[in-house]
Amino acid sequence: xxxxxxxxxxxxxxxxxxxxxxxxAVILIAAFxxxxxxxxQIETPPFSDMADYETMAxxxxxxxxxxxxxxxxxxxxxxxxxxxxFIAASYKLFGPEP
Length: 98
Prior knowledge:
Layout: H1 16-41, H2 50-61, E1 68-70, E2 73-76, H3 82-94
Antiparallel strand pairs: 1-2
Helix pairs in contact: 2-3
């Protein structure tokens, strides 16, 4: 009776899946650190469209129309009208304060 040698286990596959997950995690962490460092360096907050939309909505409620009246722009509407109309309707129903 001959005994067969025990089969050798297959070689473990390379951990390619772990490598790409590690690379992705490193890239995401680096991107977050860079963005956070940038935000700490700027002196003025980033500009947002929300202030313009709210100004247009408040002007509409005051009877001035759907316009901007900031010091650098006098009575011009350069934003789409639907969102300021929605904000004005919400302010009319519920008030501008939360």
